[in-house]
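User: Continuing from earlier, I have the next pair ready.

Assistant: Great, send them over.

User: Here they are, in order.

Assistant: Folding the first of the pair now:
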Amino acid sequence: MITPGEAWILLTGALATVSCALLGTFLVLRKMSLLGDALSHAVLPGIVIAFILSGSRDVVPMFAGAAVFGIIATVLIDAFHRRWRVQEDAAIGIVFTALFALGVVLVTAYTGHIDLDQECVLYGEIAYAPLDIWTLNGNDMGPRPAWILGTAFILTVAFVGLFYKELQISSFDPAMALSVGINATIMHYALMTMVSITTVAAFESVGAILVVAMFIVPGAAAYLWSNRLKVILWLSAIFSVLSAVGGYVLASVWNSSIAGAMVAAVGMIFFLSVLASPSQGLLGKAIVRARLSVRIAQDHLLLGLIRQSERDSFEGVLCQEIPRLVGAGPWVSRAATRRLTSGGLIRDEGDRLVLTAEGERNATRLLRSHRLWESYLSNLGLPHDHTHVPADLLEHFIDEGLRERIDQELGGSGVDPQGKPIPQERADGEAG
């Protein structure tokens, strides 16, 4: 059973991570992840100066100080990069290290007068969130961090919702944004301002260092699963909530920092995404490569059978010869044989395999593609004894239209460079 204190911690963590992730998604898409890192550090002197001037931890001075220094950092980076030709990564490194160092110096110098220390600045402690109560006219309104992060969350959702089209276009194609009347520079500074505000909102709970992961990792993980921006935004929000819940559980098990455990949880989500993403994950790519290997092995087996059938004494291929014929290992050979058999393209006759009528038609098309490519490459000047390997690679990806275009280029030649006949196809698809 979740206690009220635990519920407030989970809510605070979810608000922080989702707010960072929604904005961080655009940083990842713009290839500006390091800029998010820079801003999360560069706002530190703004927060400290706000403390010095106001003498309190009120929300408005903190947001104002963070926003001002976030904009200053962005302007300085742009100026160094565009006007003084400093490489962008170098400009980011110069600005954020200088401003962060200034912030650390200010924290150290004024730590005796202001309720702010390096541990709070660097790491944060979300476990204390339920104890920081906001009172309004003597009424208990709940933890102050939850209200602050809730406000940042609402502002973030409103910003993304209202300017979704502008953010989308300016993120993918700034030149097009200008052509349709969207000021990409203003959107850039608006996004950086929101990043600064969200950073300071999550500052006490997550800390300047750990907030970097919240900006980058959920969006990067979501990008592995989809190429559609709306889907990426939804996935980044879902991953953020999962990291908040999972991080709290991990912190309970490890007896460690809750904010750090949340970052560890989102890191695990990213690692799982790298493994399991259908299109870009390691397992997904391995499955695609395995399927392609089986498909190519099927083609090689059909080609081996049709080539051997050109001999008068051909009676099929012995099963033990299949790996050599397809040029693949036993697993791929067995998979290719099973698929061809289940598809009705080959028939198992005890100790050997033979082509069915449908298999012969498919094998003939493949053989025609191979020998057309050999002839075409030979006409381009490739030596006759060097045409087989490239033709072997290309024969699997030729459709009927391309076969006919190559045949027309060759003038209807009936033999390949080695003098072997190029099979012809009839109008009804029957090979002849």
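And the other member of the pair:
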Amino acid sequence: MDSLELHFCEACRPLFEEIKRIHKEQYEKLETRIIELEKKNKELEKKLLAYENAHTPPSKQIFPVREKSSSGKRGRPKGCPGSTRKFRKPDRTIKLTAKKCPYCHEKLGKPDRIESKIIEDLPRPKQTIITEFLQGFYTCPHCGKRVETKHDDLPDSGSFGNNTLTQVSLMKFQDRLPYRKIQEALERQYGLKIAPASILDFTKRVSDKLEKTYNQIIFKVRVSKYAYVDETGLKVDGKKYWVWIFVTAAETLALIRKSRGGDVLEKVLGMDYGGIIICDGWRVYPKFTNNLQRCWAHLLRESDFIGRREEEGRKLSDKLHRFYRNLNELLDSDPPGNERKAIKMNAEKNLKEILREKYKSERVVKFINKIKNGMNHWFTFVTNPMIEPTNNIGERGLREFVVQRKIIGTLRNEKGTQIYERLMTCIGTWKQQGLNTREELLSCLRS
């Protein structure tokens, strides 16, 4: 600047100094403004992560990424074989004949041809059946004990039968209907008028009858060889609770607790659980056990999220996808145990090679460290073919609760959480086992 000042005469120097002062003030203001904007930008990015991150479901994303299909057309892919609904055996046959022509009233004789049309239809709505039970009570003349007569269709309490309790419970917890809609459906279909408060009381009675079955499912989960575990938030009386889901080979256990910590795992699975837990990256799982399978779907989803924002992230994401695809192709042939051990060792080595490359992006480096921290838990599925490499089964188990959460918003009290736990667990387990939920529920009510 001094060399430039030599070109100015003394008369111009005051003007030059004034220009310097103005530019300096403007520069300082701009510099301060940039610092403020950078700080604000970091705060906004932090808030945005609550709504848009690698683990945000598409339904909650503000700007969801929609990938177009290769063909761009909806419907069945070209070349896919069609399917036709199979006709069921008719319960009745109605023969349609005509004796006279409706136009000239002459006799028609035998039909030229007969076509068979099988129609499936619902029965007409039936009115409620009201039954009077004349229940006998006796006193044994020998031992003096009181004897009470029972019937399968006579409930332990209340004036509504087991079929009604079953229907209401399934409409609420399997069909996802709010109490008001259940009330309307019962009146329309059966002419049965019930207040929403009574419907809640019905589900409480059913929940009480399911206590034994629910405890049996907890025991079976505790001794299982593996469990897909996941959790999601739920409001109870406006306060944050957590829905925990445990899915084994034959059971689906749901719990609603105040905690998202390892104490829930200890109470459900016990301190000496010997099975494998398939889970996401939540820190309580590795603190509880070292026998884990970390979810590859979460890992690849997060790599895609970073790859859409940074070039280095895109390259890393491509490598991870290719690596995971090649690994699964090796396992498609169901190799024997010794070969699986070799595949696992080689996979760990190749993944470390991918992560050893140098990256400048802070976000990518942080993601790589996250993968390294779970290195012992990415390949458990390779030597244990009974489990999957993702926690998709656990997430599917939670889906029913997520839909219910959208419908009800919040549970009102602890009593409601117990009803939800038991009914959702039993219905989910029966569906998983391919059982008829209505018959199973009726059986529990009659026991």
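Worth noting for the second one:
The CA atoms of residues 150 and 403 lie 39 Å apart. The two ends are 97 Å apart (CA to CA).
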